[in-house]
Amino acid sequence: MNLNRLQRQENSVGFDRSRRNFCLKMAGGLAGAMLAPTFVCRSFAGKPELQYIREARYYRKLDGKKIQCLLCPKSCVVSPGERGFCGVRENRDGVYQTLVYGRLCSINLDPIEKKPLFHFLPGTTAVSVATAGCNFRCKFCQNWNISQVKPEDISFDYLSPEALVGLTKSRQSPSIAFTYNEPTVFTEYILDTAALAKQRGVHSVMISNGFIQKQPLLNLCKVLSAIKIDFKAYSEKFYSDVVSGSMKPVLDTMVRIKEQGIWLEIVNLVIPTQNDDPNSLRELSRWVVNNLGTDTPVHFTRFHPQYRMNNLPPTPTRTLENAYEIAREAGIRYVYIGNVPQNQKENTYCHSCGNLLIERAGFSIDSNDIIDGKCGSCQTKIPGIWR
Ligand code: SF4
Fold first, then answer.
1. Residue 84 Cα to ligand 1 middle (Å)
2. Cα–Cα distance, 179 to 230 (Å, whole number)
3. Which of 120, 223, 232, 358 has its CA 20 to 30 Å from the CA of residue 297?
4. Which atom of ligand 1 is least distant from the CA of 59?
5. Over the Cα atoms of the chain, what is R_g?
6. Residue 74 alpha carbon, nearest atom of ligand 1
7. Does pLDDT of 37 surpass 80?
8. CA of 86 to the centre of ligand 1 (A)
9. Domain limits at 87?
10. Considering its fold, how many domains does the chain have in total?
11. Which residue, of 98, 130, 156, is where some domain finishes?
12. pLDDT per residue over 236-255, tens digit each?
């Protein structure tokens, strides 16, 4: 048995966003490890806006200096001086600009299990970054204080792609995660950073709502190793009423990710009375089996009251157990329950012989019996990226 005991929480990294104290602080024996000031790109010294304001990659010009954004399915038409729905892209005299290229408001060293990605380099870390902005308005958002604000309303620091890749290598982390807010809104930075990371042997993963147009997604798939999609509910009404989006483009995204051979996992936050209807969960499970295959992991996670849905109770464990059973009956081989401490259904079991493959406790790995991508007991190949 290949034991891989980790206590990743001890290695959490905090990012002090005040410019004077720009540093990485590592707990657990590495306290005070500094990110040297020279690590920050200073090529635009004296013109700080030029660091993080760049021309957007996906838009077209219209009459009267208007533009149409072609990044996500909202397809915003934006007049000069105005911004798109996500609040981080601005029409400046007929040229569409992203305001958040490398404008990072959060950077942490997270266990990959926190994303959650359970079939991707288990027991490793990812340097995890975010900007302001989102193209959804989820009433239950966990990160509303960065996703639902304008970039100028929160503190940040600029990290060039070179700096972020260098930081990741210096921390001996195999991956960068674009996460917390919706990464689609800072696509240009991901494309540049992930391309560089790939050249230097570092993986890039994206934690996304999947609400993105086809061409930018295909370009991202050339440089990403894995994508986790936060699927909201198998219901157009839910997408319209609760997150201000639509479901069909997200389904299309998941099919395209699979077609491109990128590792995909799905998370469904189950919210009492909102998206916990067994029929809807059954439809989602059948759709996954028919369109993505039985090897696509699905995580059902527990809702906790917050933001604009703090009137609802936490999801009962029984509801999550039901969702688990429904997905297993539909044929999905790897189903997980999340945000429920000490639940056995956060472990990975071999779909062929039932052997306990990965035992998890929170974000830690207690044991790992996947050897060269195969079950340590029956040698069945286990879907995922393991090395
Ligand atoms: S990325 Fe932003 S500006 Fe572009 S279409 Fe989507 S919401 Fe609108």
1. 5
2. 11
3. 223
4. 4
5. 21
6. 5
7. no
8. 6
9. 49-98
10. 2
11. 98
12. 999 999 999 999 999 999 99
Residues 60 and 107 in one domain: no
Q: Which residues contact 88 (CB under 8 A, 6 or more apart)?
A: 98, 99, 100, 131, 132, 133, 150, 151, 185, 186
Task: Report yes or no on 211 lying in a domain.
Answer: yes
Write b or e for each residue in 222-245: b if 16 or more Cβ atoms lie within 10 A of its Cβ, otherwise e.
ebbbbbbbbbbbbbeebbeebbeb
Given a contact cutoff of 8 angstroms between Cβ atoms, the answer to whether 280 and 233 are in contact is yes
Report the Cα 93 to chain-centroid distance in Å: 33
For residues 86 and 166, membership in a common domain is answered with no
Q: DSSP label at 25?
A: E
Name residues contacting ligand 1 (CB within 6 A): 69, 71-72, 74-76, 84-86, 89, 135, 185
Q: Do 123 and 164 lie in a common domain?
A: yes
Name the residue at shortest CA distance from atom 3 of ligand 1.
84
Instruction: List, for residues 341-369, the tens digit of each pLDDT value.
Output: 989 999 999 999 999 999 999 999 999 99
Q: Is residue 245 part of a domain?
A: yes
